[in-house]
Amino acid sequence: MPNPRSTGLTDTRVRQAKADAKPYNLYDTAGLYVTIATTGAKWWRLKFQHAGKEKRMGLGAYPEVSLAEARSRRDAARAVVRDGRDPAAERKGERQRAALSAATTFKAVAEEWLDKQRQRLAAVTQAKAEWLLGMAYAGFGARPIAEIAAPEVLAMLRGIEARGTHETASRVKQRIGQVFRYAIATGRAERDPTADLRGALTPVVSKSRAAVTHPDDVAVLLRALYAYEGQPTTCAALKLAPLLFARPGNLRAMEWCELDLDAEEPEWRIPAGKMKMRDEHVVPLPTQAVAILRALHALTGRGPYCFPGLRTAGRPMSENTVNAALRRLGFDKDTMTGHGFRAMASTRLNEMGWSPDVIERQLAHAERNKVRAAYNRAQYLGERRKMMQAWADCLDRLREGENKVVPIRRKRA
What we know:
This protein is of the alpha+beta class. The protein has helices at residues 11-16, 67-82, 87-103, 106-117, 123-140, 150-161, 166-185, 215-226, 232-244, 248-252, 287-300, 321-328, 340-351, 356-362, 370-376, 381-399, and strands at residues 24-27, 32-36, 42-50, 53-62, 259-260, 267-270, 281-284.
């Protein structure tokens, strides 16, 4: 077995030291030694006295830490001992602070916040929030969240603005603010720096989604939809879009198990997990919609989705399918979009005299008044069934050439 004692080491001796049946030490000077493990691994250690007790601490592995570097670390640790402090305890504290810092980086806090939103946000909204915050990660994701100041956030946001995506920059700022408010609530930050950025970004000019709303224009649109000669599933989606005016994402992800076409009052129940506001939503189905869906069932009824993708039945059609079909029919993005069917229905139904509360509930818009929201959650279903059938009949009249639309009922005061 090698001699465990030495007046000083050389790099050659440390390098050539071989493993033995038991671990052993090769000693340098001033408390520094290297331990050779039975595996051949070599670790630098330091023996020192603090508060009357003998203590030891590691200084790294050889050869990552050379003999010269080990001696430098030894000298630094002994200087701490001379000041009456414990270098091992101080290093442990530094490691704990580093671990805490890693857990309180902006990215770590943001991912924790995102995880808590999964039960509240729809999958598509969750994915968009992750995408937006991903832009912030590139700027200061690894920085401790409590150290991030307004100028740092602004610099990152202006980088997004420089690409011409002003609305995206505004939305990223909004998500960053939500993460900071969560950090404040959980004791990892003291304030939200996005509050200091009011007016610092280029104003975003809101633009309504393109939609056809005049009765004459609606009639032209409907005739074009019924004349479409593309894929049968796309044809069905184009016909159902104005009838049901659901969110495009919900329409394309419609599943056969969500439909009850044989009930006395047919309906489509969209699960809470698919809805933007995470509440189940009922769409009464007019007779025209039921007829379209029955015909579609013969084509796609063997799979889960009413509108499966062209490549696989295990996924719904692309989110761009309806918009692409509208473009082929001659309606550009400034005239009509898949989401525009909601604005079209809302505008016309209000003009026809239906209660705004009934219309808003059918659109699945969130009620801003929390008390009204709790009361109205299950209200108006009977009224909505009447409205949906009347709306479908109105669309038929327009498509067939009766452009004069009379109010369905008097407007309420």
